[in-house]
Amino acid sequence: xxxxxxxxxxxxxxxxxxxxxxxxxxxxxxxxxxxxxxxxxxxxxxxxxxxxxxxxxxxxxxxxxxxxxxxxxxxxxxxxxxxxxxxxxxxxxxxxxxxxxxxxxxxxxxxxxxxxxxxxxxxxxxxxxxxxxxxxxxxxxxxxxxxxxxxxxxxxxxxxxxxxxxxxxxxxxxxxxxxxxxxxxxxxxxxxxxxxxxxxxxxxxxxxxxxxxxxxxxxxxxxxxxxxxxxxxxxxxxxxxxxxxxxxxxxxxxxxxxxxxxxxxxxxxxxxxxxxxxxxxxxxxxxxxxxxxxxxxxxxxxxxxxxxxxxxxxxxxxxxxxxxxxxxxxxxxxxxxxxxxxxxxxxxxxxxxxxxxxxxxxxxxxxxxxxxxxxxxxxxxxxxxxxxxxxxxxxxxxxxxxxxxxxxxxxxxxxxxxxxxxxxxxxxxxxxxxxxxxxxxxxxxxxxxxxxxxxxxxxxxxxxxxxxxxxxxxxxxxxxxxxxxxxxx
Length: 489
What we know:
This protein is α/β, with parallel strands linked by helices. It has 14 helices and 13 strands. The strands form 3 sheets. The chain has a 6-stranded mixed sheet with strand order 2-3-5-4-6-13, sandwiched between helices. It has a 4-stranded antiparallel sheet with strand order 9-10-8-11. It has a 3-stranded mixed sheet with strand order 1-12-7.
């Protein structure tokens, strides 16, 4: 889920831009050149993988072909694969270890698409008639670049006798399913020294910002069907329960903290106007920068749902689908990532890509902000008004991420324009940059135990001495069917 940055505490952010020198790691120029050349050698395979996953466009927990393709690349490169981890059939962990000791450096890979965003890879809107899914967040690029980086790091380790383990986490269902949360809960990240991730974007930045905590779930109402005209008194409309809940929540918006976000879609509302709906369902997200506030607001939404059921003569059940922490910045790692992003440089577009950008930019509308294609100044601590299951990882393992321009500047995430660019050469060129930054930073971490130790110390300072990880999902299992039929978990 791409996170749009909104600056909050401007003075703190500006101060961070001018404190501490840029970290320069111990990996020498010859080794850096080796890593960069390795990524370039893999570029054709990166492109093939990314565009195949773009074409598969599989939604959360259904990414069977996407997951299998990434696993096959890693297995062929000498990684050991553990598939179906943490109760998720499409999740996997790929490991390559060399020698004794050394750190465990993790790289995250995502590969799920968004429902209802089908679009051809062209700069004019061309939605497929069946309305199937599309990669509106660029996770086809995310997974392919992360795998490429893991392989390049593995090759560097082998060539330079580096001890340690490079571990790639194939994490499904980021878009609402909280796949990484189940990995953290299962202890799969517990021994990771540092975790790296990236995300497709419309700009280039290693800013280490926060995100909103998120709790989501489905409210299902059950009533009594009847002929809507011939015997309306016999019916009890489940859709009335959904609409009553939505009305109450919309009034509640005036009485929640300003930074809260509440969204919903009606996923089932009946099939015919002349039949009183016996079942209906609405799917809710609640977000806020503070995890405790998110839980409190969702409890209020559940109370409203109980009232809606009582008032409409229906019954109601709630099934939680997702639950993610906010994102905890780590400047020790972030500055290392920033140094390598600047070392690699922004994506270089040719005539084909610039023509695509020129054609698609007018579709953004008058209100679009067009960011620079230069690398943004380093900053930390601004609020991103999106959510990601990387949040849980960041509270348990030192974690840093970055964004690379894989879309035309000004593109909104979760849009047809993002889908189009993610299936184009613009996306692949950006993914190549991301793979290089990930691999260079992983190599730096393998060679710098001091940086790994400082990143861990920073994590412990930021989360507090009394921190104990408790998932917002509790003991709930993965909602493997949340993208399939209404009422399914």
